[in-house]
Amino acid sequence: MMIRYLPLSAFLLLAACDQMPARDASFTTNKTASSDSSEAKEAKEGSDDDEVAEDRAIMADKTLDPAFRSVKVLQNDQMGCSTEVMGLVDIHMPVKTEDEALEVLKRKAAKLGAPAVINVEFHHGEPGAEPTHLSGMAVRCHDLINGRKYQVLGKLDVIAEMGKEDDGDKELLRRAAAMGANVVIDIEFEHGDGEGKPTHVRGTAIRFTS
Fold first, then answer.
1. Structural Rg of the chain based on CA atoms
2. Of 12, 27, 149, 190, whose Cβ has the fewest other Cβ atoms within 10 Å?
């Protein structure tokens, strides 16, 4: 079960060995994943370039060299512990090999302080055509529910543009906060396939009762 906790101005995403992941993140934005404001439209083209530049900067950051090498990459969520989601990680820059894609993903997780990336989606590009692509959730072992009872408030499904997983993540938090939730559990991150299918960030909003 993936979970995300929201104490007042913050959310957490958690996962135990029988749970899906969770996370702790400050909620400080009013922008939504589906925003169609003129500001969002004007910024879209530039933001794509910014994301590629950010990936390249992470690859060039030598301070991440020791940490990224120990980051685990898993296709499932079996960490053997309750997990807190530190962030959604995705590759925006074009890469040619699986090893290069893995390094970008691991460096992004290391920058967030996460020792592992779980539920990794692997999209292998055709030779000479589309690049190899990876996405997943950066997590660490941390039980945020800790046996407390809770009330289910409702399910959430946020749709975001391809490569805009951070916007989807923020919108998930905004909607849960509006419902009065403390935590979002059963977190799922579906990247999409690049053929018109959008990114989805899903979860269930809950409120502690004890």
1. 17
2. 149
Beta bridge partners of 72: 116
Tokens read off for 196: 């018109």
Q: What's the structural domain count of the chain?
A: 1
H/E stretch holding 32 reads none
Provide the domain limits for residue 13. 2-208
CB 91 within 8 A of CB 133: yes
Beta bridge partner(s), residue 22: 13, 84
Indicate the residue type of 133.
H
Find the largest Cα–Cα distance for the chain: 56
Determine contact, residues 208/177, Cβ cutoff 8 Å. Answer: no
Distance, in Å, from the CA atom of 14 to the CA atom of 179, rounded to the nearest integer, reads: 19
- CATH number at 170 reads 3.30.110.70
pTM of the model: 0.75
Which among 155, 154, 179, 2 has a CA at the least distance from the CA of 79?
2
* Burial of residue 196, with CB atoms counted within 10 A of its CB: 0-12 exposed, 13-18 middle, 19 or more buried: exposed
- With a CB cutoff of 8 Å and minimum separation 6, the contacts of 128 are none
Q: Write the pLDDT tens digit of every residue in 109-130.
A: 999 999 999 989 876 655 445 5
